[in-house]
Amino acid sequence: MAKTIVGLYDDFTTAQKVAEDLVNKGFDRNDVSVVANNVTREYDQYATSGTNHEDDMSAGEGAMAGAGIGAAIGGVGGLILGLGLLTIPGVGPALAAGPIVSALTGAGIGAIAGGLAGALVNMGVPEEEAGTYAEGVRRGGTLVAVRAEDNRTNDVAAIMNRHNPVDVDERSANWRSEGWTEYSPKAEPYTAEQITEERAKRIPIIEEDLKVGKRAAQTGGVQVRSYVTETPVEEDVHLRREHVEVERRAVDRPASEKDLKTFQEGTMEVNEMAEEVVVSKQARVIEEVVIGKEVEEHTETVRDTVRKTNVDVSQTNKEHAVGAFDATFDADYRNHFKTNYKGRDHAYDDYLPVYRYGHSLGTNEQYRNREWKQVEPDARRNWEQRNPGTWDEFKDSIHYAWTKARR
Length: 407
Prior knowledge:
Number of helices: 12
Number of strands: 5
Structural class: alpha+beta
């Protein structure tokens, strides 16, 4: 049973080598598909004569006329596949070869509505993976797809892995962190500037700041509890008590007039009185406990370490490397400096980073097949980020080094 194996690469040159290795390994060139983003028009030179379908993409029929897709054209830029130009919804101008062109142009399949993702789905790629690979092409990448039998899938994987394909899981995770959700054929294609920015390698410069603040923290305190105790007390109280005493005395005398007045019936009562102890209590404040706070201020010195990303950029000069910044280039740039800037305040060593920057642009694969007017906006932006306001002063030297390095 045949399967479709897909790999994504950041540049067309690497994808081209993968296709070559696959055919050299015995895979039928008619089973190998390549799709490269060509928004920058840098791959126009690789297109086979008579394979421009950019105007036919929307029509579906007739897009394959004269394509010769899959035909060998050895000797043209080292390619082994016929390549045609077309426009893919959501991707824009592209360079394509192989059976995927039929899926893209809707030849009997009708995949045009789904763009590149739809074409991959029709070739057997799971929908979610197809969207991720299509987004990779939209952002400037190149896709290689191979139709292979089960017993040869390991050979395909080995060849693709040998050329370091993009880790699509990691790449899509980065896209999602920036707000991307899914591939859409209705999305606006990336511009050349956006693709250049997407391809740029970034090293985030991170620096920690030490922020010192203060907060209230409990260091101690006083807990005050009040309670009532009972203490026995005694006090002597003198009390008075009355007792009635009745004494009968024998008397013998004549009754007087006063006696006669009492000579009648009656009742006399005499009460006994006694003092009793009466106890009462009165609460009195005899002491106060006053609770307050005394505030003390002091200064503490905080000592810690903060981290920062430092990037050391060193020139790697490999012997016999093409375009390496060697003694020959150094002598040429030194002579150019003496000829054009003699008598200025700057010395050659001050201009050396300028020439090195232009030289690095000239040897960069990203700019190898582009004219200076296409390279200059990126060169200016990157230079000004590190050396604000100096581009106009050094641009001629940078251009000169770029030209030399390309030769």
